[in-house]
Amino acid sequence: MVSVVVSAMIAPSGAPVTPAPLEDPMNKLAALTVGLLLSLGTVGCIAAPVVPPLGLIYTNIEAPINPTGGNPSGRRGESSVVAILALFSTGDGSVRAAAQNGGITNVEHIDYEFYNVLGIYQRYTTVVYGN
């Protein structure tokens, strides 16, 4: 029995046999980890009442978060979140921050803007209107 195991590990030329790339347990673990991270990266995609089509190369859209049926009026406030390489993200894209930036105490309408270039640079902006 031992000779079978040893012969499976050594080639006829006497050189040791290395396992195929995915037969190595560490490579399997690395492949599983990468697959899991890629799938988790799609969990936080844009969620709004209506999600316009997004381009893989370039996107520049504006859409409502809470459509009120009328034209937005009054003051306008914005707050943004920026992501670089889809790896680093920073900013405050909250409605509260947008209202503070526009000097708004009564929010009447909320829109959002999304800008993306190849996933290298992304910007999500919350836009609020009110008085």
Short synopsis of the structure:
This protein is an alpha+beta fold and 131 residues long.
Structure write-up:
Strands 1-4-5-2-3 form a five-stranded antiparallel beta sheet. The chain has 131 residues and is α+β, with helices and mostly antiparallel strands. It folds into two domains: 2-40, no CATH class; 58-130, no CATH class. The chain has helices at 2-9, 25-40, 95-102; strands at 58-66, 75-84, 88-91, 107-117, 121-130. It has three helices and five strands.
Head-to-tail CA distance between termini: 84 Å
What coarse outline follows from CA principal-axis ratios?
elongated
Helix content: 10-25%
User: What is the total domain count?
Assistant: 2
Structural class: alpha+beta
Strand content: 25-35%
Low-confidence spans: 1-7
Extended strand count = 5
- By DSSP (H or I, 4+ residues per run), the number of helices equals 3
List the secondary-structure elements in sequence, H or E: HHEEEHEE
Radius of gyration: 26 Å
Main β sheet profile: 5 strands, antiparallel
Give the strand order, joined by hyphens, for the main sheet.
Answer: 1-4-5-2-3
- The average pLDDT score comes to 79
